[in-house]
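Lab notebook, design round three. We kept the backbone fixed and only want residue identities now. Task for the bench partner: fill in a sequence for the structure below.
Input structure tokens:
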């Protein structure tokens, strides 16, 4: 269910609407089974901030980074079966690179009754938290408020405990693959994390419904004090209010009517407003995330880069043609730039359009890595671009490698960045092989 959230009162109503019809006294087994996901070629395993936090807990816990890399390749190939999520445990059958099948489990501590009671207090006090969860989002404020109440929603270092039929004592390729796949599931449904912590969606909504029914009616808001009286008394100015809660989704763009067609292209303007609304929602989510105040300000986009960003969100061909002309690109050049933007935003576009010369030490390290992974020697190396027959890798200044494949004589982005060149080569080669097979 998707709610239009515009204030605390509306958020509370939206949340109540969702669980008002949940019957009291029903029981359900605390387990959900998610169907196997397709291969994750050309994309990351997590795009949401809470999915990335899950991966951070995994990658900082595992002692063997090589096992993590193998697990990532197994998950990327789609070798993780149906994932069972229940209280304190996720389970799946994982097929290794040798085609052997192993049951893999990852354990996470369940909340006790006191922790659940405090978490329900947090959800009851701020209706927007529940509305966001029901819309498939986990607001940073919810995690912060829960932590303030002594409840750690997201796992930390050492919290993900592996168990595998292969007998490994640390995270092996099978439990790592299951953990990477779970990050994709959490992206889609943050309630899976609450189920893992011990409460199903239905059970949680029943408890919140019970609390809402038992809560006293709200009293009338105080009338306040005239400003003249406050200043006359010399009262100290109160602190600023808390930041707003993140709406569950960007707002709807209003209908634009009444302007003559020769004066204003209302449909094109609606596209721009829609893109601006979604960008504002993303910016607010980033501003409310922990640690945002210490992050450097992003660079302002150039007019050309902003044209690509708008084109990536645009669905109307006539608007796309105008953006191409306005940015000095052909339609094909703009399509390539849009693919780069979708693979990595401004960073992906910079890799497409800005070649540079890396140092000799960095190039030598990359060659050694390719040899260790038995990847073929490139046919040519020009600056930051390594080229094979139908595959190209581009090294960014931050050390990440971006995969490309050849399309009708041009180089086309094949996915997001990888931290090592061998993984990037595997992604690009797989994309090129799929394209050749499909003709």
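Proposed sequence:
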């Amino acid at each position: 269910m998707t709610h239009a959230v515009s204030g605390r009162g509306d958020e509370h109503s939206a949340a109540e609407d969702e669980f008002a019809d949940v019957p009291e006294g029903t029981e359900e087994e605390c387990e959900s089974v998610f169907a196997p996901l397709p291969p994750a070629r050309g994309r990351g395993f997590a795009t949401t901030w809470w999915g990335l936090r899950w991966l951070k807990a995994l990658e900082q816990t595992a002692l063997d980074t090589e096992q993590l890399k193998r697990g990532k390749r197994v998950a990327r190939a789609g070798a993780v079966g149906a994932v069972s999520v229940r209280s304190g445990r996720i389970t799946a059958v994982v097929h290794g690179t040798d085609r052997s099948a192993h049951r893999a489990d990852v354990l996470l501590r369940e909340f006790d009754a006191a922790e659940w009671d405090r978490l329900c207090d947090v959800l009851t006090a701020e209706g927007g938290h529940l509305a966001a969860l029901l819309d498939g989002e986990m607001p940073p404020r919810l995690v912060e408020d829960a932590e303030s109440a002594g409840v750690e929603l997201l796992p930390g270092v050492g919290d993900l405990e592996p168990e595998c039929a292969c007998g490994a004592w640390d995270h092996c390729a099978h439990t790592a693959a299951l953990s990477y796949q779970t990050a994709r599931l959490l992206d889609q449904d943050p309630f899976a994390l609450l189920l893992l912590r011990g409460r199903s969606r239905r059970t949680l909504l029943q408890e919140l419904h019970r609390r809402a029914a038992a809560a006293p009616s709200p009293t009338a808001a105080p009338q306040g004090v005239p400003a003249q009286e406050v200043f006359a008394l010399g009262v100290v100015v109160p602190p600023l209010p808390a930041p707003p809660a993140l709406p569950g989704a960007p707002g709807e763009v209003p209908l634009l009517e009444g302007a003559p067609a020769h004066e204003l292209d209302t449909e094109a303007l609606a596209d721009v407003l829609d893109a601006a609304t979604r960008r504002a929602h993303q910016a607010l989510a980033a501003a409310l995330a922990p640690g945002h105040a210490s992050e450097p300000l992003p660079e302002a986009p150039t007019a050309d880069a902003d044209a690509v960003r708008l084109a990536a969100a645009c669905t109307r061909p006539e608007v796309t043609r105008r953006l191409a002309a306005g940015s000095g690109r052909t339609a094909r050049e703009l399509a390539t730039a849009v693919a780069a933007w979708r693979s990595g935003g401004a960073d992906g576009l910079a890799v497409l359009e800005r070649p540079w010369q890396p140092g000799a030490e960095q190039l030598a390290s990359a060659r050694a890595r390719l040899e260790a992974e038995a990847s073929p020697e490139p046919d040519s190396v020009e600056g930051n671009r390594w080229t094979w027959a139908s595959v190209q890798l581009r090294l960014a200044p931050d050390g990440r490698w971006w995969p490309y494949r050849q399309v009708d004589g041009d180089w086309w982005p094949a996915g997001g960045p990888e931290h090592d060149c061998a993984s990037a080569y595997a992604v690009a080669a797989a994309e090129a092989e799929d394209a050749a097979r499909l003709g």
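Keep this in mind before ordering anything: The mean pLDDT is 81.
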